[in-house]
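WARN  no MSA supplied for this record, continuing single-sequence
INFO  ligand: magnesium ion
INFO  echoing inputs
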Amino acid sequence: MNLLLYGAPGSGKGTQANVLRAYFRIPHIATGDMLRAEIANRTQLGLKAQPILAAGQYVSDEIMIAMIRNRLRQADCEPGFIMDGFPRTVPQAEALDDLMEELGRRFDRVIYLKVPVDELLRRLSGRLVCPRCQRTYPPGTAACAIHGTALVQREDDKPEAVRPRIEIYLEKTVPVLDHYRAFGLVSEIDGRGTIEAISSQVLAAVSTHLNGANSSPRSGEVARRAGGAARPKQKP
Ligand code: AP5
Ligand code: MG
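INFO  complex generated
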């Protein structure tokens, strides 16, 4: 199962990836999280990337493509993966096509979480994250449910970075959607509503395209499996 989550900043990619990785038990590959780990570890790449992320701009295609080439070759990706935050430009999408071909893989589905800009701005300004595991939480949450750590605001969620992030997404990342639409891979999902209802729609879209019939799991089923119950015996 190889899934690609596509959407604007704040559309819920990370939130849905947390549900999907528990459901399918495959890794969540999030380039933003990878970059933030480099920044936290003060690596050479992290030092270079920090001001770019803080300004809401994109790290170069060359760096990001090299990062993904390394990551997808790691053994934990063999059963599949959930990609979040890559590709963000058409050259990244083309490089990923080549890499997938080299690896003999293909995407099962590209899930586009569609959320209007005013809702994106509202979500990003209130978002809180765990500095240890990067899980995201809605405004008002005190501590990480997993680590008990005090939550913080992401540097790029400060007002001066949020607008540039949306602008660069509209300019450079929207064309990536057309790239995948041309392959007939995109399922567009309204990203507004409860997290669980959206997860059910995502799983229904994956299910429909894998089995050719809509055998969507109900919301309760999503919550049960995401809570750590048995892995589905066959692809949904
Ligand atoms: P990245 O970390 O990928 O950031 P992003 O794409 O801007 O997306 P976000 O993580 O902000 O949003 P999300 O869609 O994951 O939403 P979330 O689930 O958190 O990248 C950061 C930076 O790294 C980039 O700006 C760039 O500089 C660099 N970078 C990364 N990849 C790159 C690449 N390939 N090339 C170049 N540069 C790259 O949800 C948001 C909030 O909404 C949360 O508070 C959540 O609780 C809430 N929420 C979620 N779902 C719902 C719902 N249904 N209803 C109400 N609230 C909800
Ligand atoms: Mg995210």
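The mean pLDDT is 89.
INFO  checksum written, moving to next record
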